Amino acid sequence: MRLKSGLLRGEVCDMKELELGEARDVAATLEAMPIQEVIDQVERTSITKGAVLLRLLSKDRSLLVFDALGPRLQADLIGAFQDAEVLDYFADLDPDDRVSLLDELPASIADELLRSLDPQEKQVTELVLGYAKGSVGRWMSPQVLLLFDDMSVAEVLDFVRNHAAEAETIYALPIVNRARQVMGVVSLRKLFIADPTLKVSEIMVRPVSVLASADIEETARWFLQLDLVAMPVVDESNMLLGVLTFDDAQDIVEQADSEDSARSGGSEPLQQPYLSTPIRKLVKSRIVWLLVLAVSAILTVQVLDIFEATLVEAVVLALFIPLLTGTGGNTGNQAATTVTRALALGDVRKSDVFRVLGREIRVGLMLGALLGAVGFVIASLVYGMPVGTVIGLTLLAVCTMAASVGGVMPIIAKAIGADPAVFSNPFISTFCDATGLIIYFAIAKLVLGI
Protein backbone atom coordinates (compact mmCIF):
# COMPACT_ATOMS: atom_id res chain seq x y z
CA MET A 1 0.00 0.00 0.00
CA ARG A 2 1.30 3.44 -0.91
CA LEU A 3 2.09 5.68 2.08
CA LYS A 4 0.85 9.20 1.41
CA SER A 5 1.52 10.98 4.66
CA GLY A 6 4.74 12.69 5.71
CA LEU A 7 4.34 11.04 9.12
CA LEU A 8 4.56 7.59 7.59
CA ARG A 9 7.66 8.72 5.69
CA GLY A 10 9.18 9.96 8.95
CA GLU A 11 8.73 13.70 8.34
CA VAL A 12 6.35 14.62 11.17
CA CYS A 13 7.68 14.60 14.70
CA ASP A 14 4.79 15.45 16.96
CA MET A 15 1.03 15.01 17.16
CA LYS A 16 0.63 18.77 17.34
CA GLU A 17 2.25 19.18 13.92
CA LEU A 18 -0.50 17.22 12.23
CA GLU A 19 -3.47 19.14 10.91
CA LEU A 20 -6.89 17.57 11.50
CA GLY A 21 -7.36 16.57 7.89
CA GLU A 22 -3.93 15.01 7.61
CA ALA A 23 -4.38 13.14 10.90
CA ARG A 24 -7.61 11.64 9.57
CA ASP A 25 -5.88 10.61 6.33
CA VAL A 26 -3.02 8.97 8.22
CA ALA A 27 -5.44 7.20 10.57
CA ALA A 28 -7.47 5.89 7.63
CA THR A 29 -4.29 4.69 5.88
CA LEU A 30 -3.08 2.92 9.01
CA GLU A 31 -6.43 1.22 9.57
CA ALA A 32 -6.39 -0.12 6.01
CA MET A 33 -2.81 -1.41 6.19
CA PRO A 34 -2.07 -5.05 7.13
CA ILE A 35 -1.16 -5.22 10.81
CA GLN A 36 2.39 -6.41 10.09
CA GLU A 37 3.04 -3.32 7.95
CA VAL A 38 1.87 -1.10 10.81
CA ILE A 39 4.21 -2.91 13.22
CA ASP A 40 7.03 -2.45 10.70
CA GLN A 41 6.30 1.30 10.49
CA VAL A 42 6.50 1.67 14.28
CA GLU A 43 9.73 -0.34 14.49
CA ARG A 44 11.40 1.63 11.69
CA THR A 45 10.84 5.13 13.07
CA SER A 46 11.78 7.18 16.11
CA ILE A 47 10.11 6.73 19.50
CA THR A 48 8.17 10.01 19.20
CA LYS A 49 6.84 9.22 15.74
CA GLY A 50 6.06 5.64 16.76
CA ALA A 51 3.95 6.93 19.64
CA VAL A 52 2.04 9.20 17.24
CA LEU A 53 1.33 6.26 14.93
CA LEU A 54 -0.05 4.21 17.83
CA ARG A 55 -2.30 7.10 18.89
CA LEU A 56 -3.76 7.35 15.39
CA LEU A 57 -4.78 3.69 15.38
CA SER A 58 -8.07 2.44 16.75
CA LYS A 59 -7.78 1.17 20.31
CA ASP A 60 -7.94 -2.53 19.38
CA ARG A 61 -5.32 -2.28 16.65
CA SER A 62 -3.13 -0.04 18.77
CA LEU A 63 -3.12 -2.58 21.61
CA LEU A 64 -2.37 -5.38 19.13
CA VAL A 65 0.58 -3.50 17.65
CA PHE A 66 1.98 -2.57 21.07
CA ASP A 67 1.73 -6.19 22.20
CA ALA A 68 3.77 -7.31 19.17
CA LEU A 69 6.70 -4.99 19.95
CA GLY A 70 9.72 -6.03 22.00
CA PRO A 71 9.83 -5.09 25.70
CA ARG A 72 12.72 -2.62 25.24
CA LEU A 73 10.85 -0.70 22.52
CA GLN A 74 7.66 -0.85 24.61
CA ALA A 75 9.53 0.67 27.53
CA ASP A 76 10.83 3.54 25.36
CA LEU A 77 7.35 4.19 24.00
CA ILE A 78 5.86 4.34 27.52
CA GLY A 79 7.55 7.70 28.08
CA ALA A 80 5.82 9.18 25.02
CA PHE A 81 2.29 8.27 26.13
CA GLN A 82 -0.20 9.90 28.47
CA ASP A 83 -0.92 8.12 31.77
CA ALA A 84 -4.31 6.80 30.63
CA GLU A 85 -2.81 5.33 27.46
CA VAL A 86 -0.02 3.65 29.42
CA LEU A 87 -2.47 1.92 31.73
CA ASP A 88 -4.51 0.63 28.79
CA TYR A 89 -1.45 -0.82 27.05
CA PHE A 90 -0.09 -2.33 30.25
CA ALA A 91 -3.34 -3.92 31.38
CA ASP A 92 -3.86 -5.53 27.96
CA LEU A 93 -0.57 -7.47 28.09
CA ASP A 94 -0.33 -11.07 29.26
CA PRO A 95 1.33 -11.50 32.70
CA ASP A 96 4.63 -12.81 31.27
CA ASP A 97 4.76 -9.95 28.75
CA ARG A 98 4.03 -7.45 31.55
CA VAL A 99 6.98 -8.80 33.52
CA SER A 100 9.30 -8.43 30.50
CA LEU A 101 8.17 -4.81 30.15
CA LEU A 102 8.56 -4.10 33.89
CA ASP A 103 12.15 -5.38 33.74
CA GLU A 104 12.95 -2.64 31.20
CA LEU A 105 11.34 0.24 33.15
CA PRO A 106 12.66 2.36 36.03
CA ALA A 107 11.55 0.97 39.40
CA SER A 108 9.29 3.95 40.18
CA ILE A 109 7.33 3.61 36.93
CA ALA A 110 7.19 -0.20 37.25
CA ASP A 111 5.73 0.07 40.76
CA GLU A 112 3.15 2.60 39.61
CA LEU A 113 2.03 0.40 36.72
CA LEU A 114 1.85 -2.66 38.95
CA ARG A 115 -0.38 -0.81 41.42
CA SER A 116 -2.72 0.19 38.59
CA LEU A 117 -3.76 -3.42 37.90
CA ASP A 118 -6.87 -4.96 39.35
CA PRO A 119 -6.18 -7.36 42.27
CA GLN A 120 -6.43 -10.56 40.21
CA GLU A 121 -4.14 -9.36 37.40
CA LYS A 122 -1.71 -7.94 39.95
CA GLN A 123 -1.57 -11.29 41.76
CA VAL A 124 -0.71 -13.33 38.66
CA THR A 125 1.84 -10.73 37.52
CA GLU A 126 3.55 -10.74 40.92
CA LEU A 127 3.63 -14.54 40.78
CA VAL A 128 5.74 -14.40 37.62
CA LEU A 129 7.86 -11.55 39.04
CA GLY A 130 8.71 -13.76 42.01
CA TYR A 131 10.90 -16.04 39.92
CA ALA A 132 14.53 -15.31 39.11
CA LYS A 133 15.46 -13.68 35.82
CA GLY A 134 16.57 -16.30 33.35
CA SER A 135 14.28 -18.96 34.82
CA VAL A 136 11.30 -20.63 33.16
CA GLY A 137 9.02 -19.22 35.83
CA ARG A 138 9.83 -15.70 34.66
CA TRP A 139 8.52 -16.53 31.19
CA MET A 140 5.61 -18.84 31.97
CA SER A 141 1.99 -17.81 31.76
CA PRO A 142 0.06 -18.57 34.96
CA GLN A 143 -3.19 -18.22 32.98
CA VAL A 144 -3.99 -21.91 32.74
CA LEU A 145 -7.26 -23.82 33.12
CA LEU A 146 -7.60 -26.31 35.97
CA LEU A 147 -8.81 -29.55 34.38
CA PHE A 148 -8.99 -32.62 36.60
CA ASP A 149 -8.31 -36.20 35.55
CA ASP A 150 -11.61 -37.47 36.94
CA MET A 151 -13.65 -35.19 34.62
CA SER A 152 -15.30 -36.58 31.53
CA VAL A 153 -14.41 -35.40 28.04
CA ALA A 154 -17.78 -33.64 27.82
CA GLU A 155 -17.18 -31.83 31.12
CA VAL A 156 -13.72 -30.73 30.00
CA LEU A 157 -15.04 -29.40 26.69
CA ASP A 158 -17.81 -27.47 28.47
CA PHE A 159 -15.32 -25.99 30.91
CA VAL A 160 -12.90 -24.99 28.15
CA ARG A 161 -15.72 -23.43 26.14
CA ASN A 162 -16.85 -21.32 29.12
CA HIS A 163 -13.38 -20.26 30.31
CA ALA A 164 -11.25 -20.16 27.13
CA ALA A 165 -10.79 -16.40 27.41
CA GLU A 166 -9.00 -16.85 30.75
CA ALA A 167 -6.28 -19.15 29.37
CA GLU A 168 -3.02 -18.40 27.55
CA THR A 169 -3.65 -21.36 25.24
CA ILE A 170 -6.33 -24.02 24.89
CA TYR A 171 -4.66 -26.17 22.24
CA ALA A 172 -2.54 -28.16 24.69
CA LEU A 173 -4.24 -28.58 28.07
CA PRO A 174 -2.52 -29.85 31.24
CA ILE A 175 -4.55 -32.36 33.27
CA VAL A 176 -4.10 -32.44 37.05
CA ASN A 177 -5.35 -34.48 40.00
CA ARG A 178 -7.24 -32.93 42.88
CA ALA A 179 -3.91 -32.06 44.55
CA ARG A 180 -3.09 -30.00 41.40
CA GLN A 181 -0.26 -32.32 40.41
CA VAL A 182 0.21 -32.70 36.66
CA MET A 183 -0.92 -36.12 35.47
CA GLY A 184 -1.00 -35.66 31.70
CA VAL A 185 -1.66 -33.41 28.72
CA VAL A 186 -4.45 -33.53 26.15
CA SER A 187 -4.87 -31.64 22.91
CA LEU A 188 -8.05 -29.85 21.94
CA ARG A 189 -8.12 -31.91 18.74
CA LYS A 190 -8.14 -35.14 20.74
CA LEU A 191 -10.94 -33.84 22.94
CA PHE A 192 -13.09 -33.05 19.92
CA ILE A 193 -12.83 -36.53 18.41
CA ALA A 194 -13.02 -38.51 21.69
CA ASP A 195 -16.12 -40.20 23.09
CA PRO A 196 -17.73 -37.55 25.37
CA THR A 197 -18.44 -40.18 28.04
CA LEU A 198 -14.78 -41.17 28.48
CA LYS A 199 -12.74 -39.88 31.40
CA VAL A 200 -10.12 -37.42 30.26
CA SER A 201 -7.52 -39.57 32.02
CA GLU A 202 -8.19 -42.25 29.39
CA ILE A 203 -7.14 -40.07 26.46
CA MET A 204 -4.42 -37.85 27.97
CA VAL A 205 -0.75 -38.55 27.21
CA ARG A 206 2.30 -38.52 29.43
CA PRO A 207 3.27 -34.89 30.03
CA VAL A 208 6.52 -33.20 29.07
CA SER A 209 6.91 -30.68 31.87
CA VAL A 210 9.62 -28.40 33.22
CA LEU A 211 10.52 -26.95 36.61
CA ALA A 212 9.87 -23.25 37.07
CA SER A 213 13.44 -22.86 38.36
CA ALA A 214 15.03 -24.34 35.20
CA ASP A 215 17.18 -22.21 32.87
CA ILE A 216 14.92 -20.62 30.28
CA GLU A 217 17.30 -20.63 27.29
CA GLU A 218 18.25 -24.30 27.66
CA THR A 219 14.60 -25.21 28.16
CA ALA A 220 13.40 -23.20 25.17
CA ARG A 221 15.90 -24.85 22.84
CA TRP A 222 14.95 -28.44 23.66
CA PHE A 223 11.27 -27.53 23.90
CA LEU A 224 11.25 -26.21 20.32
CA GLN A 225 12.79 -29.46 19.07
CA LEU A 226 9.76 -31.37 20.38
CA ASP A 227 7.28 -29.37 18.22
CA LEU A 228 4.87 -28.95 21.15
CA VAL A 229 2.33 -26.12 21.34
CA ALA A 230 2.82 -25.65 25.09
CA MET A 231 4.05 -27.55 28.11
CA PRO A 232 3.23 -27.43 31.82
CA VAL A 233 5.49 -25.58 34.24
CA VAL A 234 5.64 -27.23 37.67
CA ASP A 235 7.31 -26.90 41.05
CA GLU A 236 9.40 -29.54 42.85
CA SER A 237 6.18 -31.29 43.97
CA ASN A 238 4.94 -31.53 40.36
CA MET A 239 2.18 -29.02 41.08
CA LEU A 240 0.98 -27.02 38.08
CA LEU A 241 2.11 -23.37 38.08
CA GLY A 242 1.55 -22.32 34.48
CA VAL A 243 2.49 -23.09 30.88
CA LEU A 244 5.36 -22.22 28.57
CA THR A 245 4.14 -21.65 25.02
CA PHE A 246 5.84 -22.29 21.69
CA ASP A 247 5.81 -18.61 20.68
CA ASP A 248 7.49 -17.54 23.93
CA ALA A 249 10.16 -20.20 23.45
CA GLN A 250 10.80 -18.87 19.94
CA ASP A 251 11.19 -15.33 21.32
CA ILE A 252 13.66 -16.56 23.94
CA VAL A 253 15.85 -18.40 21.42
CA GLU A 254 15.75 -15.48 18.97
CA GLN A 255 16.75 -13.07 21.73
CA ALA A 256 19.58 -15.34 22.91
CA ASP A 257 20.90 -15.81 19.36
CA SER A 258 20.80 -12.04 18.79
CA GLU A 259 22.79 -11.47 21.98
CA ASP A 260 25.38 -14.08 20.99
CA SER A 261 25.70 -12.60 17.52
CA ALA A 262 26.18 -9.06 18.87
CA ARG A 263 28.70 -10.04 21.53
CA SER A 264 30.71 -12.21 19.17
CA GLY A 265 31.05 -9.08 17.04
CA GLY A 266 32.20 -6.94 19.94
CA SER A 267 29.04 -5.05 20.92
CA GLU A 268 26.08 -5.34 23.25
CA PRO A 269 22.67 -6.42 21.86
CA LEU A 270 20.25 -3.58 21.07
CA GLN A 271 17.13 -5.57 22.09
CA GLN A 272 14.99 -3.40 19.83
CA PRO A 273 14.81 -2.59 16.11
CA TYR A 274 17.87 -0.73 14.79
CA LEU A 275 16.01 2.23 13.25
CA SER A 276 14.05 2.93 16.44
CA THR A 277 17.16 2.80 18.64
CA PRO A 278 18.41 6.24 19.77
CA ILE A 279 21.94 7.17 18.67
CA ARG A 280 23.16 7.33 22.29
CA LYS A 281 22.11 3.69 22.78
CA LEU A 282 23.98 2.65 19.66
CA VAL A 283 27.11 4.35 20.99
CA LYS A 284 26.65 2.83 24.44
CA SER A 285 26.26 -0.67 22.97
CA ARG A 286 29.63 -0.44 21.24
CA ILE A 287 31.93 1.80 23.27
CA VAL A 288 32.54 -0.57 26.20
CA TRP A 289 33.78 -3.37 23.97
CA LEU A 290 35.90 -0.99 21.91
CA LEU A 291 37.58 0.25 25.08
CA VAL A 292 38.17 -3.31 26.33
CA LEU A 293 39.62 -4.41 23.00
CA ALA A 294 41.75 -1.28 22.69
CA VAL A 295 43.27 -1.90 26.12
CA SER A 296 43.78 -5.61 25.44
CA ALA A 297 45.45 -4.80 22.10
CA ILE A 298 48.23 -3.18 24.11
CA LEU A 299 49.40 -6.75 24.78
CA THR A 300 50.27 -7.09 21.11
CA VAL A 301 52.21 -3.83 21.18
CA GLN A 302 54.09 -4.98 24.27
CA VAL A 303 55.07 -8.24 22.58
CA LEU A 304 56.41 -6.37 19.55
CA ASP A 305 58.36 -4.07 21.87
CA ILE A 306 59.93 -7.03 23.66
CA PHE A 307 61.08 -8.59 20.37
CA GLU A 308 62.15 -5.32 18.77
CA ALA A 309 65.80 -6.44 18.62
CA THR A 310 64.78 -9.64 16.80
CA LEU A 311 62.88 -7.62 14.21
CA VAL A 312 65.87 -5.34 13.66
CA GLU A 313 68.08 -8.34 12.86
CA ALA A 314 65.52 -9.96 10.54
CA VAL A 315 63.26 -7.27 9.14
CA VAL A 316 61.61 -9.78 6.80
CA LEU A 317 59.83 -11.27 9.82
CA ALA A 318 57.65 -8.16 10.08
CA LEU A 319 56.13 -8.91 6.66
CA PHE A 320 54.47 -12.09 7.96
CA ILE A 321 52.98 -10.66 11.18
CA PRO A 322 49.54 -9.84 9.64
CA LEU A 323 49.35 -13.32 8.09
CA LEU A 324 50.16 -15.14 11.31
CA THR A 325 48.00 -13.05 13.65
CA GLY A 326 45.09 -13.14 11.21
CA THR A 327 45.33 -16.91 10.78
CA GLY A 328 45.49 -17.47 14.54
CA GLY A 329 42.54 -15.18 15.23
CA ASN A 330 40.42 -16.74 12.49
CA THR A 331 41.21 -20.28 13.63
CA GLY A 332 40.31 -19.44 17.22
CA ASN A 333 37.10 -17.70 16.16
CA GLN A 334 36.01 -20.68 14.09
CA ALA A 335 36.49 -23.04 17.02
CA ALA A 336 34.81 -20.68 19.50
CA THR A 337 31.81 -20.09 17.25
CA THR A 338 31.35 -23.82 16.66
CA VAL A 339 31.57 -24.74 20.37
CA THR A 340 29.40 -21.79 21.48
CA ARG A 341 26.69 -22.95 19.09
CA ALA A 342 27.06 -26.55 20.29
CA LEU A 343 26.67 -25.37 23.90
CA ALA A 344 23.50 -23.47 23.01
CA LEU A 345 22.00 -26.52 21.30
CA GLY A 346 22.96 -28.85 24.13
CA ASP A 347 25.34 -30.88 21.93
CA VAL A 348 28.21 -30.05 24.29
CA ARG A 349 28.13 -29.85 28.10
CA LYS A 350 30.54 -28.39 30.64
CA SER A 351 31.73 -31.90 31.48
CA ASP A 352 32.87 -32.37 27.86
CA VAL A 353 35.71 -29.85 28.18
CA PHE A 354 38.52 -32.41 27.79
CA ARG A 355 36.78 -34.17 24.90
CA VAL A 356 36.43 -30.83 23.14
CA LEU A 357 40.06 -29.96 23.89
CA GLY A 358 41.25 -33.26 22.41
CA ARG A 359 39.20 -32.80 19.26
CA GLU A 360 40.29 -29.19 18.74
CA ILE A 361 43.96 -30.05 19.24
CA ARG A 362 43.66 -32.61 16.43
CA VAL A 363 41.72 -30.19 14.23
CA GLY A 364 44.28 -27.45 14.89
CA LEU A 365 47.18 -29.77 14.09
CA MET A 366 45.63 -30.80 10.77
CA LEU A 367 44.78 -27.22 9.81
CA GLY A 368 48.24 -26.04 10.87
CA ALA A 369 49.94 -28.80 8.90
CA LEU A 370 48.06 -27.90 5.72
CA LEU A 371 48.53 -24.14 6.07
CA GLY A 372 52.10 -24.58 7.31
CA ALA A 373 53.03 -26.64 4.25
CA VAL A 374 51.69 -23.95 1.94
CA GLY A 375 53.43 -21.20 3.93
CA PHE A 376 56.72 -23.14 3.97
CA VAL A 377 56.76 -23.63 0.20
CA ILE A 378 55.86 -20.02 -0.69
CA ALA A 379 58.12 -18.37 1.90
CA SER A 380 61.04 -20.67 1.03
CA LEU A 381 60.79 -19.84 -2.67
CA VAL A 382 60.80 -16.09 -2.01
CA TYR A 383 62.89 -15.61 1.16
CA GLY A 384 64.84 -18.82 1.53
CA MET A 385 64.35 -22.08 3.41
CA PRO A 386 65.19 -20.80 6.94
CA VAL A 387 62.41 -18.18 6.77
CA GLY A 388 60.09 -20.74 5.18
CA THR A 389 60.78 -23.12 8.06
CA VAL A 390 59.91 -20.40 10.59
CA ILE A 391 56.63 -19.61 8.83
CA GLY A 392 55.66 -23.27 8.43
CA LEU A 393 56.36 -24.19 12.05
CA THR A 394 54.66 -21.04 13.36
CA LEU A 395 51.48 -21.73 11.38
CA LEU A 396 51.44 -25.29 12.73
CA ALA A 397 51.86 -24.12 16.34
CA VAL A 398 49.56 -21.11 16.10
CA CYS A 399 46.66 -23.04 14.53
CA THR A 400 46.94 -25.76 17.19
CA MET A 401 47.05 -23.22 20.01
CA ALA A 402 44.23 -21.07 18.61
CA ALA A 403 41.86 -23.97 17.94
CA SER A 404 42.47 -25.36 21.44
CA VAL A 405 41.90 -22.02 23.17
CA GLY A 406 38.91 -21.15 20.98
CA GLY A 407 37.25 -24.49 21.71
CA VAL A 408 37.79 -24.48 25.46
CA MET A 409 37.13 -20.82 26.36
CA PRO A 410 33.33 -20.90 25.75
CA ILE A 411 33.04 -23.96 28.01
CA ILE A 412 35.07 -22.26 30.73
CA ALA A 413 32.85 -19.20 30.40
CA LYS A 414 29.76 -21.38 30.78
CA ALA A 415 31.24 -23.06 33.84
CA ILE A 416 31.84 -19.75 35.65
CA GLY A 417 28.42 -18.39 34.74
CA ALA A 418 29.53 -15.98 32.01
CA ASP A 419 28.07 -15.68 28.51
CA PRO A 420 30.15 -17.94 26.19
CA ALA A 421 29.69 -15.39 23.39
CA VAL A 422 31.65 -12.85 25.44
CA PHE A 423 34.70 -15.11 25.13
CA SER A 424 34.20 -15.55 21.42
CA ASN A 425 35.62 -13.54 18.54
CA PRO A 426 36.90 -10.25 20.10
CA PHE A 427 38.59 -11.73 23.17
CA ILE A 428 40.04 -14.76 21.42
CA SER A 429 41.35 -12.70 18.50
CA THR A 430 43.28 -10.43 20.85
CA PHE A 431 44.58 -13.36 22.90
CA CYS A 432 45.71 -15.27 19.82
CA ASP A 433 47.40 -12.19 18.37
CA ALA A 434 49.61 -11.72 21.43
CA THR A 435 50.30 -15.42 22.00
CA GLY A 436 50.89 -16.05 18.30
CA LEU A 437 53.56 -13.35 18.17
CA ILE A 438 55.36 -14.87 21.15
CA ILE A 439 55.35 -18.27 19.42
CA TYR A 440 56.49 -16.67 16.14
CA PHE A 441 59.49 -14.86 17.57
CA ALA A 442 60.46 -17.80 19.78
CA ILE A 443 60.59 -20.09 16.74
CA ALA A 444 62.42 -17.42 14.70
CA LYS A 445 65.12 -17.04 17.36
CA LEU A 446 65.52 -20.81 17.56
CA VAL A 447 65.66 -21.47 13.80
CA LEU A 448 67.52 -18.33 12.66
CA GLY A 449 69.78 -18.11 15.69
CA ILE A 450 69.14 -14.40 16.30
UniProtKB/TrEMBL annotation:
Annotated membrane topology: Multi-pass membrane protein
Stored Pfam families: CBS, MgtE, MgtE_N
Transmembrane segments: 287-307, 361-383, 390-412, 427-448
Recorded GO MF terms: magnesium ion transmembrane transporter activity; metal ion binding
Domain CBS: start-end pairs: 140-202, 203-261
Assembly notes: Homodimer.
Protein name according to UniProt: Magnesium transporter MgtE
Taxonomic source organism: [Brevibacterium] flavum
Highest classification ranks of the organism: Bacteria, Bacillati, Actinomycetota, Actinomycetes, Mycobacteriales
